[in-house]
Protein 1
Amino acid sequence: MATEDQKRWDEKHAGKRGDQPSSSFLVEILSSASWQIAPGRALDVATGRGRNACFLAERGFSVDAMDISEVALQEARKTAQARGLPINFIQAELEQAALPGAAYDLIINFNFLERSLIPKMKNALKLGGHVIFETYLVDQRVLGHPRNAAFLLGHNELLELFRDFRVLYYREGKFVEQGNAAYRAGLFARKVR
Ligand SMILES: C[S@@+](CC[C@H](N)C(=O)[O-])C[C@H]1O[C@@H](n2cnc3c(N)ncnc32)[C@H](O)[C@@H]1O
């Protein structure tokens, strides 16, 4: 049976159709000659309509993509099918979901913040695996959605959350994505122990 959270997210996703551009932060990191991340097994946390999962699958990753919203996942499945991408979409409430240990080469998390999930994400990464994480900063409140402090990162918070990883790239500030400016923090880091 659908939880209140699932219903709320299903309503938010209802009526939203079509392909969305992948995150420019993700594209920048995976296209950079500096790191050359080899394809492997990847997890997209809170995939939404799957824009980033599709990007990873196109780059040769074998992708699991989780989201609470069946409505979002239906759209994601259509997009992946149209593009011939064999993504494993999983409907799950991430706080309750068990993630396999040391299973993934890459975990991505975009526009979603559930701090309690971070230890599980770390455990699900292989040693030497990478995380790419980008979401809104506390400064975003002056620009608009989201405003709830629970879903906004403090300054340097993302760095602190991954201080046991080797941070390869980090940025904070106001960035334009698809023509919209937003305050975000972005991190790319490697599990080293
Ligand atoms: C703002 S959207 C971001 C989607 C995607 N990561 C992107 O950047 O396009 C946040 C997503 O988190 C999902 N979500 C919210 N709470 C969740 C939960 N507890 N478990 C799993 N997914 C959740 C929503 O359904 C929604 O698709």
Protein 2
Amino acid sequence: MDNFWLKIKHPILALAPMAGITDSAYRQICRRYGADVVYSEMASVSALYFHPVKYFSITKNNFVNQNLLNRVKPQKTLELVKFEKAERPYVVQLFGKEPAHFAKATKIISEKVKPDGIDINFGCPAKKVFSHGSGCALMMQKELAREIISAVCENTKLPVSIKIRAGVKDATALEFVKYTADIPYSTIMIHGRTYEGGFSGPLDFKLVEKIKKMFPDKIVLANGGINSAEDGVKILKDHPPLDGLGIARGAWGRPWIFDEIKDLLKNNVGVQFIEPENNNGFDKSNPYDFNRVKKIMLLHAKLIHKDKGQHGLFEIRKHMSWYVKGFPGASELRRKLVMAKSIEEIKEILS
Ligand SMILES: Cc1cc2nc3c(=O)[nH]c(=O)nc-3n(C[C@H](O)[C@H](O)[C@H](O)COP(=O)(O)O)c2cc1C
């Protein structure tokens, strides 16, 4: 098995999966500014099992900031997870609850999409997903979770990862990993909050550290609440055995947070970061001033337009709002940008 996880220099900085956000254009931008690996939006195994080429929407659930998702257009499931070479290493995340659906979906993704890895969602607390018995509801059904992980591992040569929470009701992440660790999955991203903690509750990285120490052969990434380079470096320093970090909302409007973490690690703190050999030829200079941010905004707009056409310019509005946050004249700029109907108009507004 060609396991890309083992080839990434530590610490591994991953763009965590986000439905309605981590599309191909955004993943390309995050890779360009330092993410070592990027995850897709979650894709339904049942949709892949029954109708891989039919339209399916996963965005009408109750994630935080639902209003920011901007009514993302339903997409064919296979289209949802397609990607560009520049995104590699790229991981497709699957969610569902039927082992047979996971088995078939894994085959379809491995053969037709050909990503670098497959991830299983055991962390989603959204009502629609949880009440269906998928996402983090599966942390309470360890036997079924075992069947699911085995079904995925047995149907692909790609490395398999799982994404879990610190706990759900009485079920803990430690118990979950103890119960499943003999299955040959490679990587665990652990959101340090419990199901009850939602998206803003307390984070338990001591638990994440304990899991890494008990299962040193698994690659363990800590996720949750990393909103600045300092946050990321602090977690790595305080919990040295961890292999890396998963960043979600901290990369909103700030995809260069990955490069910022690497810079901070290189320049002044104890954890040593080693430059990856292959940075895909990207210019990784950090955009600390607004002129650079504007260039990234334009590039992001061009990439999403290329991928999704006119609808992409509608979807990019949320990103535009996040990019301008905190800069002088942000609200005026935001107002103009969300009205823009073409790349030329965006260019004009930004100039
Ligand atoms: C809008 C949104 C969509 C998300 N979609 C997914 C998803 O598809 N799969 C998943 O495992 N987690 C999903 N998450 C959870 C994130 O990957 C991450 O675990 C969580 O936001 C905590 O990290 P953060 O504090 O860096 O944002 C989503 C989070 C947000 C805010």
